C-alpha cells in the first residue's frame, strides 16, 4: 500500500482551519481520494482526575496542553500502515470522553490544529504544512460566536480567556510558526486558488 500523505492545517483559533479542512476533504473525496481527518483538539490531555475548577485554569493554548506524543505515535502508525484508535474531547467538561474511534490507514491524512507546527516531534511527520493567515479580529469574532453557541461559554469567560492565554500564546507560539509552512492561505475557506494548489499537490505527490 502507498504510504499516506500527511498534511497539517494550522493557524490561530478561529482562523477557519475546520472549514478549510472540510472543504478540501469533501473535494478530495469527490475525486475518489481516500482521506482521513484528525483534529489536534482530540489530543488535549485527559483531565478527568482534576476538579472542574482546576480544569478551567488550564492554559489550552500552550503546547503542553496537548498529548502531542500520542498524536505523533498515531501518525507514525498510520505511516506504517497500521490502524489507530484516536481519542475524543469535550470542550464543555474540558476533558477526554470515554470513547475511542478506530481508523485504518488512508492515502491522505489531514490534521488540523493550532499548535501542530510548534511541535518538534510532529513537524518531520508532515509532508505538507499549511498556515491559515486570517486577521485576528476576524478570528476573535468567530471564536466568540462559536464558544457561546457550541462550547457552553459566556461572553465574559471568552473575553478573559482571550486576554489571559489565547492572544499571548498566539504571539508566542502560533504566529512565529507561519514561516515554517509551505503554503500560507489568506481569505480562509473561500480561497479557491489555494484549495486548487493543495489538491494538485496532493494528486501529484501521493500517487493517487
Ligand atoms: N479550548 C478551550 N477550552 C478547552 C480546550 C480548548 O477554550 N477545554 C480552546 C483553546 O483556547 C484553543 C481552541 O480551543 O484556542 C482550539 O480550537 P480552535 O482552533 O479554535 O478550533 P477549530 O474549530 O479547530 O479551529 P477553527 O476555528 O480555525 O476552525
TrEMBL record:
GO terms for molecular function: ATP binding; uridine kinase activity. Keywords: ATP-binding, Cytoplasm, Kinase, Nucleotide-binding, Transferase. It comes from the Bacteria. The keyword ATP-binding applies. Pathway: Pyrimidine metabolism; UMP biosynthesis via salvage pathway; UMP from uridine: step 1/1; Pyrimidine metabolism; CTP biosynthesis via salvage pathway; CTP from cytidine: step 1/3. GO terms for biological process: CTP salvage; UMP salvage. Its main location: cytoplasm. GO terms for cellular component: cytoplasm. Signal peptide: none annotated. Its EC number is 2.7.1.48. Residues 6-191 form the Phosphoribulokinase/uridine kinase domain. InterPro entries: P-loop_NTPase (IPR027417), PRK/URK (IPR006083), Uridine_kinase-like (IPR000764). It catalyses: cytidine + ATP = CMP + ADP + H(+); uridine + ATP = UMP + ADP + H(+). The keyword ATP-binding applies. It is found in: Cytoplasm. Gene3D superfamilies: P-loop containing nucleotide triphosphate hydrolases. NCBIfam families: PRK05480.1 (NF004018), udk (TIGR00235). Belongs to the uridine kinase family. PANTHER family: URIDINE KINASE (PTHR10285). This is Uridine kinase. It comes from Neptunicella marina.
Amino acid at each position: 500500500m502507498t504510504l499516506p500523505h500527511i498534511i497539517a492545517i494550522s493557524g490561530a483559533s478561529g482562523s477557519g482551519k475546520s472549514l478549510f479542512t472540510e472543504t478540501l476533504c469533501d473535494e478530495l473525496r469527490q475525486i475518489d481520494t481516500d482521506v482521513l481527518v484528525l483534529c489536534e483538539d482530540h489530543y488535549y490531555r485527559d483531565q478527568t482526575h482534576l476538579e472542574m475548577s482546576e480544569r478551567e485554569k488550564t492554559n489550552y493554548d500552550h503546547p503542553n496542553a496537548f498529548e502531542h506524543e500520542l498524536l505523533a505515535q498515531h501518525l507514525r502508525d498510520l505511516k506504517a500502515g497500521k490502524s489507530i484508535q484516536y481519542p475524543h474531547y469535550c470542550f464543555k467538561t474540558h476533558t477526554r470522553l470515554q470513547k475511542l474511534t478506530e481508523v485504518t490507514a488512508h492515502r491522505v491524512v489531514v490534521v488540523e490544529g493550532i499548535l501542530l507546527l510548534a511541535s518538534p516531534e510532529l513537524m518531520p511527520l508532515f509532508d505538507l504544512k499549511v498556515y491559515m493567515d486570517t486577521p485576528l479580529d476576524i478570528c476573535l469574532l468567530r471564536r466568540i460566536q462559536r464558544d457561546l453557541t457550541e462550547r457552553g461559554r459566556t461572553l465574559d469567560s471568552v473575553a478573559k480567556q482571550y486576554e489571559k492565554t489565547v492572544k499571548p500564546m498566539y504571539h508566542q507560539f502560533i504566529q512565529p510558526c507561519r514561516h515554517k509552512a509551505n503554503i500560507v492561505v489568506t481569505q480562509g475557506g473561500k480561497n479557491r486558488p489555494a484549495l486548487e494548489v493543495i489538491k494538485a499537490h496532493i494528486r501529484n505527490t501521493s500517487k493517487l
